[in-house]
Amino acid sequence: MEIVPIPMDSYNVGFIGAGKMAESIARGAVRSGVLPPSRIRTAHTNPARRAAFESFGVKVLSRNEEVVEESDVVVFSVKPQVVKNVILQLRPLLTTKKLLVSVAAGLKLKDLQEWAGHSRFIRVMPNTPAAVGEAASGIVSTTTTVMSLGGAATEEDGNLIYKLFGSIGKIWKADEKFFDAVTGLSGSGPAYIYLAIEALADGGVAAGLPRDLALSLASQTVLGAASMAINGGKHPGQLKDDVTSPGGTTIAGIHELEKGGFRGTLMNAVVAAAKRSRELS
Hints:
Elements: E1 13-16, H1 20-32, E2 40-43, H2 47-54, E3 59-61, H3 64-69, E4 73-76, H4 80-90, E5 99-102, H5 109-116, E6 121-126, E7 144-149, H6 155-166, E8 170-173, H7 179-187, H8 189-206, H9 211-231, H10 236-242, H11 249-259, H12 262-280
Parallel strand pairs: 1-2, 1-4, 2-3, 4-5, 5-6, 7-8
Antiparallel strand pairs: 6-7
Helix pairs in contact: 7-12, 8-9
């Protein structure tokens, strides 16, 4: 199987599926200068989705077949339950000259490669903050992305996808065997944090704060704490100790969290989501 190098200075990216995830990746690539919009294409019949991509210069075609024909890198960004049918429909066009990428949760490389008929495939797992351009997949870097390369994907292919998804956040390379755990932690993790923000805001309201102020404080507190964890150079336990004075307010709150099994509950949530990911795949 001959692998033709992707032209790094002129390649086109096509998105099969024009949802929020595809939009955020495309916007990130354009905003960061990784790709001009003229080298990105997708297809959709919904006027609102077409307008969203056209608003920043992306070419919107009528059919997925046209997207594949005009693209060197084809990103499957449709819902997991329809990926198989979409790949099989497009299979005659999915030659080894094209680098294929899946962002669908739970679908293993071995199945993706079987449906496509070759293994020049890369599986990428971004989390939902990518939908607002903050993926840990570096701008304000709240999106996280993990990728795993198929058998025929080259190092150059990996570098291309690393750069593309790096435009929407932080990205790591990992063996596919870790992807269920990645799903349980960073894939589902934003929902856990949204719950925590909502609960913190509710606590502020219960303590007498106006709702808007409580929500703003809760959201900014989580953002600031995450920034310290990433950039502070200290273990989270040490950061916690740094703001916990003897007999003070913070230790009183932590005591309540420990009584409620806060850490164990979060651990259980990650494990349960990872287990469900394995079941779905």
